[in-house]
């Protein structure tokens, strides 16, 4: 069955001075799906996510349910799209609850106060991300995984249907990686959230993403289901690494074993020399 | 938490009333309570109370409030806990304006000019105010034209403009008339002796409008604490908000500096205490700063008036002394 796309990214081009960061990037994501963005360092993943989030100026357009996100004000966009960044450390000791409650901001005017319903939705979000017991703790005192969950809680309070996450499992141990991605999977399935996420780990992408896009030098080299797109040739071509790919008997997902060559360690990748 | 707020409100009401009993002219308790409740006992005590002491106490409270909320706002919008209203060249700009005024006052041609005598007392504050606003505009234009308008660049531009204007001020004072130079130096050290009822009402209006505005913007200021990009994704127009806050802070500080001179450390110290006692969210922070800043400045002015008989200590000396001790103690605790 072909699902109607909820998010449509159309021909995004982005350059800094004469250096092309993104060239003609287009893809669709259906509602309730997780789209994983893969690629080596400097391929343009963060730039693409920033473009979708409206944080950079670019050529092309991004449509959410046939409405151009570029034409919306920051506040209107924030009602439809929530962003979870890699690190957000406030200088003053905001509590977990206060950070989650910030998600209410796009829905509030200057004169609005928090209603009982607002407090309830913040509490529900804290329950959902498992941080109710740490609601009065300083955000900066939370572990990396807890901070990510807190920001996901903020995105839930924001009531945005589209979530954009830039490498949310970087610097997290295996337990928290699966906890965060499992939480996103549940959100996509139970609440119909559409999620665009950048990842480095091919096995995590295979396990949690419905569709993947592989970026190389600002262009999409592959797009489709992980089991069809993640191939030995693609990994060799994009990451310059040998691999062994097999299908897990447990969940039917593909598993990738990587074998970087020792000689390749000292020489630079074609990607790196271009940066 | 509720108890702390009640205590703060009670202290904020008690501080101005208590400080009315201190001053150079001896007013009895009966005189003061009489003036407050019904009628003053004599024309002299009425004049001293309503024309001098009452405006001075109220202005002291408002000056403390204005400097504290400016500091709190700047610390939030720059995400720098050491940001201070004076960092953007406001004081050095005011000093520069005052120095130009002092040179003009000593000039014979200027003195012979047909200026109405009732305007002359306002000339120094007007020059100071113009100087401080020009400094802020200079900082803003340098930061946006050559440094890309990023907030950390604005701080750097502020420091550069401060030093530049201070150098020019010192040069003007060096070549200026010694009497006028003394006047400007004393003014730069801060004093509430120049204030009157008209200034009190003007300052009250400005502080009230700015406080209400900053409290309305509170949740947006909180969003800035997590970074510009994070705030933008929450629907905050970051550039517009930051510019608005800078203008508000410049206005508050310039109005204070123009009449009362340089009063350092209040904008730095009070927000830190309020955050520790009442929390970091902006609405609580602003309200706490208005009350605690006011209480602090009222009692500092009492010390300035009462510490040395028949003399007044410049208020900036006292705030700087208290502020430096406060930070040394805070460093020991952390």
Brief digest:
The complex is a heterodimer of chains A (275) and B (334). Chain A is an alpha/beta fold and 275 residues long.
List the helices and strands and how they pair.
The complex is a heterodimer of chains A (275) and B (334).
Chain A: E1 5-16, E2 19-30, E3 34-38, H1 45-53, E4 59-64, E5 67-68, H2 74-80, E6 81-84, H3 96-101, H4 116-128, H5 144-157, E7 162-166, H6 174-191, E8 194-198, H7 202-208, E9 211-216, E10 219-224, H8 226-229, H9 232-239, E11 242-247, E12 254-259, H10 262-266, H11 270-274
Helix pairs in contact in A: 4-5
Chain B: H1 2-19, H2 29-37, H3 43-78, H4 90-106, H5 108-112, H6 120-146, H7 151-175, H8 178-188, H9 197-216, H10 218-224, H11 228-233, H12 238-260, H13 266-278, H14 282-306, H15 315-333
Order of helices and strands of chain B: HHHHHHHHHHHHHHH
Portion of residues within helices of chain A:
25-40%
Strand tally of chain A is 12
Residue ranges of chain B: pLDDT <50 for 5 or more in a row? none
CATH fold assignment of chain A: Rossmann fold
Task: Based on the coordinates given, report the CATH architecture of chain B.
Answer: Orthogonal Bundle
Strand residues, percent of chain A = 25-35%
CATH class of chain B, please?
Mainly Alpha
Overall shape of chain A: it is globular
Largest sheet of chain A: 6 strands, mixed
Number of DSSP strands of chain B? 0
The overall average pLDDT of chain A, rounded, is 87
How far is it from the N-terminal to the C-terminal residue of chain A, by CA?
41 Å
Structural class of chain B: mainly alpha
Determine the number of helices of chain B (DSSP H or I, runs of at least 4 residues).
Answer: 15
Please list the strands of the largest sheet of chain A in the order they lie side by side: 6-7-8-3-9-10
CATH 4th-level superfamily of chain B: ABC transporter involved in vitamin B12 uptake, BtuC
Q: How many domain regions of chain A?
A: 1
The low-pLDDT segments of chain A are none
Evaluate the radius of gyration of chain B: 21 Å
Order of secondary-structure elements of chain A: EEEHEEHEHHHEHEHEEHHEEHH
């Amino acid at each position: 069955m072909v699902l109607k796309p909820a998010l449509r990214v159309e021909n995004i081009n982005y350059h800094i001075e004469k250096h092309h960061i993104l060239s003609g990037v287009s893809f669709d994501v259906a509602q309730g799906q997780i789209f994983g963005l893969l690629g080596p360092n400097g391929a343009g993943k963060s730039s693409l996510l920033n473009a979708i989030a409206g944080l950079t100026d670019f050529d092309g357009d991004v449509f959410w349910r046939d409405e151009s996100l570029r034409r919306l004000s920051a506040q209107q966009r924030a009602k439809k799209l929530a962003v979870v960044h890699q690190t957000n450390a406030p200088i003053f000791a905001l509590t977990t609850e206060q950070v989650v409650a910030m998600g209410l901001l796009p829905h509030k005017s200057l004169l609005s106060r928090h209603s009982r319903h607002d407090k309830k939705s913040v509490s529900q979000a804290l329950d959902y991300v498992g941080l109710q017991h740490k609601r009065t703790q300083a955000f900066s005192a939370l572990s990396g995984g807890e901070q990510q969950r807190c920001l996901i809680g903020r995105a839930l309070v924001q009531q945005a249907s589209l979530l954009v996450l830039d490498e949310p499992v970087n610097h997290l141990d295996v337990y928290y990686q699966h906890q965060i991605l499992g939480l996103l999977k549940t959100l996509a399935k139970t609440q119909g959230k559409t999620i665009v996420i950048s990842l480095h780990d091919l096995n995590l992408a295979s396990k949690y993403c419905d569709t993947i896009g592989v970026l190389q030098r600002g262009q999409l080299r592959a797009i489709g289901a992980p089991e069809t797109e993640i191939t030995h040739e693609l990994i060799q071509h994009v990451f310059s690494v040998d691999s062994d790919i097999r299908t897990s008997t447990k969940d039917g997902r593909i598993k990738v074993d990587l074998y970087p060559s020792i000689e390749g360690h000292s020489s630079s990748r074609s990607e790196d020399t271009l940066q | 938490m509720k108890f702390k707020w009640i205590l703060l409100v009670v202290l904020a009401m008690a501080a101005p009333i208590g400080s009315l009993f201190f001053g150079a002219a001896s007013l009895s308790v009966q005189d003061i309570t009489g003036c407050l409740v019904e009628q003053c006992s004599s024309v002299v005590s009425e004049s001293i109370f309503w024309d001098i002491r009452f405006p001075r106490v109220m202005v002291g409270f408002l000056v403390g409030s204005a400097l504290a909320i400016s500091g709190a706002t700047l610390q939030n919008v720059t995400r720098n806990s050491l940001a201070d209203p004076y960092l953007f060249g406001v004081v050095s700009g005011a000093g520069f304006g005052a120095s130009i005024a002092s040179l003009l006052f000593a000039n014979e041609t200027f003195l012979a000019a047909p200026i109405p005598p009732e305007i002359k007392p306002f000339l120094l504050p007007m020059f100071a105010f113009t100087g401080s606003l020009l400094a802020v505009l200079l900082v803003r234009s340098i930061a946006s034209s050559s440094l890309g308008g990023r907030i950390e660049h604005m701080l750097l531009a502020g420091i550069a403009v401060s030093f530049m204007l201070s150098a020019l001020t010192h040069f003007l004072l060096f070549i200026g008339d010694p009497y006028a130079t003394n006047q400007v130096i004393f003014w730069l050290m801060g004093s509430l002796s120049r204030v009157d009822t008209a200034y009190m009402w003007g300052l009250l209006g400005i502080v009230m409008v700015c406080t209400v505005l900053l409290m309305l913007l509170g949740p947006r200021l909180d969003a800035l604490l997590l970074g510009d990009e994070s705030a933008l994704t929450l629907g905050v127009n970051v550039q517009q908000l930051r510019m608005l806050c800078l203008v508000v802070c410049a206005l508050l500080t310039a109005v204070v500096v123009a009449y009362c001179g340089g009063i350092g450390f209040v904008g730095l110290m009070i927000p830190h205490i309020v955050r520790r006692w009442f929390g970091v969210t902006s609405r609580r922070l602003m309200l706490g700063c208005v009350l605690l800043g006011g209480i602090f400045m009222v009692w500092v002015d009492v010390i300035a008036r009462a510490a040395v008989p028949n003399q007044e200590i410049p208020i900036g000396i006292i705030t700087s002394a208290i502020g430096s001790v406060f930070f040394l103690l805070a460093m020991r605790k952390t």
